[in-house]
Q: What sequence folds into this?
């Protein structure tokens, strides 16, 4: 693990320095940038023969985040996910329809492993094909739906169009996460689908889903501290904050083999509550996410960084380095639609229309392949995007236009 060997040496930390939990603060932080700089395998702690699976998520620029797992890691993942599902209220008697994406994204397979270990019946629908999802709910007697909160709303809308009221279905529980949502959104989902909606949290760098989840008391997400050690820091100073104060969540993995992380800065803003919960669980609870300490956006469940968009734009000829990312924010850093305004050069603009059209097409397909989601591209005349006087404001909410 050349990366950790180097950073620990730079900090002058040796194994003897770590005697108690309080010594954790002697260890250096790990960030998304470290993943980028050591792409693909610089943070890996085992040889490739021991790796049985690799997942991936968006990084801050062109390079994705790579997440390798040993068989032991997969077993632990299944265990924390089985625990997660149980805490949410799932049992072996449930029929669980898993509408998180299967594939490189950790959501689909993470929930799948946990549900099988628990002994529930899994229907691996993955995302999309919404009509079929509704049919499956009706015909197979689905009791638990796992998907992003925005997809839960989509399911309701599609069902309504089909003349189906999901409140009359067998559905009783939804386990939602991977993107920010509010208490208001929870009430809305519970009402539309006639279910109990539970918040679940995780991230690729740490394991995927299965880091924390609510219990039926819905008063914060219990973190599985026997595998994931949580701290909260001041994102500006890096100083550790006491329980109860809001700051950036930092996680150290205790049992991961293939790619353990030391003090990973999640950039997610939360607070921790160590009080025992009414459910009887004693593991620390994290609050709902209130924001990010970086500029990451989540568009329909996919992480998007303005820097990724910029790196695409700067490689395309005929485009000026002036752009605006327009979002329809519903909650914190989540948006359903992504629109990018791009200034074109004088040359492209004064040319016959064909060039503009080609440019737009090219940008759309480049964005699609780099971001993994479709963005609307709007080409604008030279010198029409306001120039910054200090920090450029790249992300604008449509309501501010
Ligand atoms: P990924 O690694 O692609 O699964 O993305 C992980 C990120 O998704 C986290 O760092 C959070 O910013 C966001 N996320 C995951 N679960 C939740 C949740 N329950 N509420 C809010 N944001 C979440
Ligand atoms: Zn609890």
A:
């Amino acid at each position: 693990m050349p990366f950790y060997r180097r950073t620990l040496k730079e900090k002058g930390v040796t194994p003897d320095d770590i005697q108690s939990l309080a010594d954790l603060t002697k260890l250096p932080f790990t960030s998304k940038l470290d993943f980028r700089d050591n792409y693909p395998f610089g943070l890996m702690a085992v040889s490739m023969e021991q790796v049985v699976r690799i997942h991936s998520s968006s990084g801050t620029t062109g390079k994705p985040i790579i997440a390798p797992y040993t068989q032991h890691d997969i077993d632990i993942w299944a265990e924390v996910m089985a625990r997660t599902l149980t805490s949410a209220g799932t049992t072996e008697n449930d029929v669980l329809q898993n509408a998180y994406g299967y594939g490189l994204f950790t959501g689909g397979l993470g929930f799948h492993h946990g549900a099988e270990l628990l002994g529930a019946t899994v229907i691996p629908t993955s995302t999309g094909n919404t009509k079929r999802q509704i049919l499956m709910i009706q015909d197979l007697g689905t009791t638990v739906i796992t998907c992003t909160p925005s997809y839960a709303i989509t399911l309701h809308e599609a069902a309504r169009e089909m003349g189906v009221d999901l409140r009359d279905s067998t559905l009783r529980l939804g386990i939602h996460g991977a993107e920010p949502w509010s208490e208001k959104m929870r009430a809305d989902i519970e009402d539309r689908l006639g279910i109990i909606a539970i918040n679940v949290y995780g991230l690729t760098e740490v394991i995927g889903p299965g880091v924390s989840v609510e219990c039926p008391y819905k008063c914060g997400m219990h973190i599985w501290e026997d595998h994931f050690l949580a701290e909260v820091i001041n994102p500006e100073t890096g100083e550790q904050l006491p329980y109860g104060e809001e700051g950036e969540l930092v996680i150290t993995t205790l049992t991961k083999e293939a790619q353990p992380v030391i003090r990973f800065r999640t950039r997610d803003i939360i607070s921790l509550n160590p009080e025992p919960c009414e459910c009887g669980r004693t593991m620390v609870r994290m609050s709902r996410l209130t924001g990010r300490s970086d500029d990451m956006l989540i568009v329909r469940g996919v992480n998007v960084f303005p820097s990724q968009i910029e790196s695409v734009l700067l490689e395309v000829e005929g485009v000026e380095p002036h752009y605006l990312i327009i979002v329809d924010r519903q909650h914190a850093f989540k948006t359903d639609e992504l629109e990018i305004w791009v200034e074109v050069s004088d040359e492209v603009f004064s040319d016959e229309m064909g060039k503009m059209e080609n440019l737009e097409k090219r940008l759309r397909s480049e964005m699609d392949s780099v971001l993994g989601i479709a963005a609307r591209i709007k080409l604008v005349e030279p010198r029409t995007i306001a120039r910054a006087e200090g920090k450029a404001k790249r992300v604008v909410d449509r309501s501010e236009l």
Notes: The mean pLDDT is 93. The chain has ten helices and 21 strands. The radius of gyration is 22 Å.
